[in-house]
Amino acid sequence: MRKQIAAANWKMNLSHHEADSLLDQLLATEHHLSSNQAVIFAVPAIYIPLAVQKLNGKPNIFVAAQNCHQKANGAYTGEIAASMYASVGVHHIILGHSERREFFAESDTLLAEKTEAVLTIGSTPIFCCGEPLEIREAGTQNSFVEAQLKNALFQLSADQIVKVVIAYEPIWAIGSGQTPEPHKINSIHEMIKDVVQSRFSNIGLDSVLYGGSVNSSNAAALFEEDEIDGALVGVASLDGKEFAEIANILNDLT
Ligand code: PGA
Q1: Atom number, ligand 1, closest to the C-alpha of residue 128
Q2: Over the chain, what is the mean pLDDT?
Q3: Which end of the chain is less enclosed by CB atoms within 10 A, N or C?
Q4: Global model pTM greater than 0.85
């Protein structure tokens, strides 16, 4: 069943005090999310207890992690396992964000392991894919994204793939103020769903989100598209009013 999601990705931003105030501001906005909608906050790991304490118990609002380690435990100084997040009430984990791929050299092979690790403990990966500018300029974005999906997700079982949320984020659109036209994003989302169906016949993905310069001015046009099931929002999620407005636009879709 289609699941619509507005997800905030705070990245490595905000002091504890700022995080606290932003969460309060967001909580002041009433949402009436239906059961097939969710608002998710991917906050820096150190603020997870704060966010969980403030948000847990609010219907259809969840706290997420921005990354995890691929192993269940062990001597990996500074790392956090998916099960540790689950143990503090966090069951959504962003994986393969382009910043992790670029600055931390995360490969498709590593992301296949991380995806498996998250699913194994019953949590939900928000798996990011998307092409850099030179690929878009060459017009080969479909095959680029297809390869990312095949390399990282095709080893999963049918039972596992249905639990994955995919976020399509063209790298050139992230933080740039540029977004592809909504119908063009829609057709890439169609392609993503087709690629998954080509491997897992009769399995439909519940959510393919779009990310890259989403804000309260362009969200409505994006969410109107049939295959855009929500958004992963960076910069605009650091502004309480902006993000609350995006969540409201999602909310009004029902
Ligand atoms: P942006 O970031 O909204 O600032 O473009 C999106 C993301 O990186 O997930």
Answers
A1: 9
A2: 96
A3: N
A4: yes
